[in-house]
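User: Some background: our group keeps a shared notebook of sequences we're curious about, and every so often someone picks one and asks for a predicted structure to add to the entry. Today it's my turn. The entry only has the sequence so far, pasted here. Could you supply the structure so I can complete it?
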Amino acid sequence: MTTLVTGASGFLGSHVARQLVARGDNVRVLLRASSHNRAISDLSLEYVTGDLRDPASLERAMNGVKKVFHVAADYRLWAKRSKEIYESNVGGTKNLLAAAEKAGVEQFVYTSTVATIAVDRPQPPNESIEARLDEMVGHYKRSKWLAEQEVLNAAKNGAPVIVAMPTTPVGPWDWKPTPTGKIIVDFLNGKMPGYVETGLNFVGVEECAAGHLLVSERGKVGERYLLGAENLTLKQLLDMLAKITGLRAPTMKISHGLALTAAYANTIFSRLTFREPQIPIEGVKIARHKMFVDCSRAQRELGFRPGSVEAALERAVRWYEANGYVTARRAKRMAEAAASL
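Assistant: Of course. Here's the predicted structure to add to the notebook entry:
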């Protein structure tokens, strides 16, 4: 039986592919011609070149496939052409669902996101929350909400679809890095003079990938499962990183208003210099709300057992350091702090 994985060159997708191979699955990965396979180059995989926006390439990729893990997503908080995010996340998901139906795929595990339900509620929301499109901040969240609706509607019409909902994965092999990884790298390099009052649910990327396999093995068609571990404020996250590295955590709390002003100014400057903004406006707007959630369902129904977020952060830090993401000066300070313990 062949299992198809999309997004295998990315952070979470590479870990899903790695664990499927370790389990003994025959894994085929769909990669764009421009994608780099460094995160999975050591694995025994079958490669198919294609694009979620190209239905013909998806039909080729589906040949003989019985199970799909659709992990790929355009995860950007800024894009010169926001239309591209919708083309990949919404249009691409519709194309893949159609190709899977035509090929007679027996199971389709769709990787959604905590963002589609992490909205303002009196209590931390869970999978029972039906959030609205107007509650989604920014193009990434809106596109994932729309894509998830396509998936859930397909399930209602008989498609064998189950939804995995990662919270915020952290850990090694984040080559790009992801927006969350960039926060960690900026901390390591001393580029965070302050912090805003916000919070997220974090989970080790390896455990989140293992959760995808549990969703496949024990999940119910048409259901959603949050794969997360700990709700942490940004300040708590930075304090954990300080404990791990011996580096000082920022102590200056920045108001959301000031952060948003800085984001707008940074965006204007970026347009003039034809560069990507270092402070995405959407990221600051999202930070106004703590994205805390209740992840107990996956633990209760799937046997999902996430590990310590602090341990996952330590694995991430060591990986970033070993792979050249930390400046020599900051790496030296980390080594000196470790030696003094």
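Suggested note for the entry: Residues 2-172+203-229+293-301 form a domain with the Rossmann fold fold (CATH 3.40.50.720). The two ends are 51 Å apart (CA to CA).
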